[in-house]
Amino acid sequence: MSRKSMLPKRLQPMLATLTDAPFDDSNWVFEDKYDGFRMVSEIRGGKVALFSRNGKIISHSYIEVAKALEGVKGDAVIDGELVAIGEDGVSHFQLLQNALRHEAKLLYCAFDLMFMGGEDLRKLPLLERKKRLKAILPRNKLIAFSNHRKGSGKKFFAEAERKRLEGMIAKRADSPYASGSRTADWLKVKTAQRQKVVIAGFTAPRRTRPFFGALVLSVREDGGWRYIGHVGTGFSHQTLEELHGKLVKLKAAKSPFPVKVKDEHVTTWVRPSLVAEVKFAEWTSKGELRQPGYLGLRSDKKATDVTRERPRVRAR
After folding, report:
1. Is residue 140 a contact partner of residue 107, using CB atoms and an 8 Å limit?
2. Whole-number CA gyration radius for the chain
3. Among 225, 194, 198, 199, which Cα is nearest to 214's?
4. Which residues are CB-contacts of 245 (< 8 A; sequence separation ≥ 6)?
5. Distances from the Cα of 236 to the Cαs of 49, 82, 93, in angstroms?
6. Rounded CA gap, 293 and 275, in Å?
7. What is the CATH number of the domain that holds 267?
């Protein structure tokens, strides 16, 4: 098992496809969609390596979680989500921004098992992999097994909405693990619309707000950058300061867009490299975000991979 800074194909996480609505199906199981970021854990000889979705080794950033995973029974490669739990008992992506300052309660939610004791389990059915995963996880307050419900996706989704979770993941019960692939065997249904975006610039501050007024947002389209709106809400004073410090180091001489966008006269352009996540009400007819709110930066995805996420309509 590789310790390189980039995960080999066989250790890359399987990805879920966005779908338009919850459903009931006895051949599927349903899990919470956690509001955190993906983390693959490699346990070998009692030593733990933690990898982000894009292959960066992040063990040094989450030493307590790595230490907890030393209790896994035997060698294994585990797939899961690192989350930060708020006072309401729910995971919140924004809280992960504070995790490195030790201000957040972290939890590693393990939901799949790729390898165990040198054996490749990826061709086994999902429920068999989950059974084996549950058996090897240690009892630790920093580690949780991701439970599932079979068949009743609509009820599960209604509960997710009531608990104000991000959504649910639907998985075909007999599905193999497809490393590095986005397939229709895993589907995600969101309780609110969210979109990963790339920051293309920032506007001058207004009134009493310091540092900047709004962020200029973009996604990748046809080999270039497409403007999808501005976001000016969701920032704390600390976020404004920290984000501004990152953006000024990325200043660019001109806009990355082929057309003019609003507020260009007060915009400082930056190299499109920082990925963030926003929530929003809907897409407009112009292909822009309506009422977006900033949630935080994402370090687990390359800017050039960020495209508009369109839900797959599942056959009823």
Report:
1. no
2. 20
3. 199
4. none
5. 33, 23, 14
6. 14
7. 2.40.50.140
Q: Which residue from 217, 236, 247 is spatially nearest to 101, judged by alpha carbons?
A: 236
Query: Mind giving me the DSSP string for 188-253?
Result: EEESSEEEEEEEEEEEPP-TT--S-S-EEEEEEETTEEEEEEEE--S--HHHHHHHHHHHGGGB-S
User: Does residue 173 sit in the same domain as residue 250?
Assistant: no
Q: Would you state the pLDDT for residue 25?
A: 95
Q: What is the count of structural domains for the chain?
A: 2
CA dihedral sign, ordered 199, 209, 243, 255:
positive
Judge whether 2 lies within some domain. Answer: no
Report pLDDT for 99: 58
CA distance 69 to 38: 16
Q: Which residues in 28-57 are b (16+ Cβ under 10 Å) and which e?
A: bbbbbbbbbbbbbbbbeeeebbbbbbbbeb
Q: Which of 188, 205, 239 is the last residue before a domain boundary?
A: 188
Element (H, E) at 88: none
Residue 299 belongs to what H/E stretch? Answer: none
Q: Give the tokens for residue 198.
A: 């790339």
CATH of the domain at 57: 3.30.470.30
SS3 303: helix
Residue in 4, 9, 33, 163 annotated catalytic: 33
Eight-state DSSP code of residue 12: S
33 is a catalytic site residue: yes
State pTM to two decimals: 0.77
Looking at the structure, do residues 168 and 227 belong to the same domain, yes or no?
Answer: no
Stretches in the chain below the pLDDT threshold 50: 1-5
